Amino acid sequence: MRKHFVYQPLFLFLCSLLFGIIFISCGGKSSKNIGAFKFDSIKVNRTVHLFADTAKPACNIVVNFSYIKKTSNNTLKDSINKRLVNFCFGEKYEKMLLDTVIKHFTDNYIHAYVHDLEPMYKEDKKNVDDSSSVGAWYSYYKNIKGYVQLYHKSLLVYRFDYNEFTGGAHGIYSSKFLNFDLNAMRPLQLSDLFIDDYSDELTDLIWSQLMADNKVKTHDELQDLGYGSTGDIAPTENFYLSDKYITFYYNVYDITPYVMGATEVKIPYEQIQQLLKKKSIIDEFDK
After folding, report:
1. Pairwise CA distance, residues 13 & 117, whole Å
2. For residues 85 and 93, is the Cβ–Cβ distance under 8 A?
3. What's the whole-model pTM score?
4. Cα separation of 27 and 21, whole Å?
5. Domain co-membership, 139 together with 207
């Protein structure tokens, strides 16, 4: 009777090699961040006084803009950087070089300040005895910051913070978010994540979360606190994704008065499983 022998070291090596190939093709590749981006930022801080006189009011502009500096995919990098420029500065800056964008943006802000306010300031000085009260209304500022909040596999979450004062009782500030699907090469909307007719049930969940956050039990009690006084409480396209939550971000005046500030409503993914599409970018978090 002939016996069959298996050369065990070779057999184990071949099994390990096969396992490695399967792991890389099935799991390893998908676990990497698409584009392998390396980020950098452009920072500007400029102050200019009216009439070039340091004793006069001034405007101050601060810009901190993060962008993709290096990548394994230059086409993807250029496309996203253009989208980020549009998102933070406007469409007219989209075709400019990044360094040029920041320079033009700050130059335009300063030029408008000097051009518009110098004649107004000169006229007001003639009619007001207390020059210090006049100066307070002419001291402007603009602070903007764009940065990557999350970079995970095919998802890039970018946040833009804006804060400006142009005279008056107080300044204005806001934050907005771009959830970029790197596979589809476009920003995500709620319709990309949720099934049809999601709105009513998701609205109820937002109300419930707000009530829980504020330790009240009814809609009326929540409204008595000021929620819903300046706008309807409903799902907003100003949202951002994280590993465990979808967060709806309401800026001042969206659903509350200025004094209450911005409102964030975090909804855990496990609470919205029934509303999520079967295949969406949220699946990449391995809930």
Report:
1. 77
2. yes
3. 0.86
4. 10
5. no
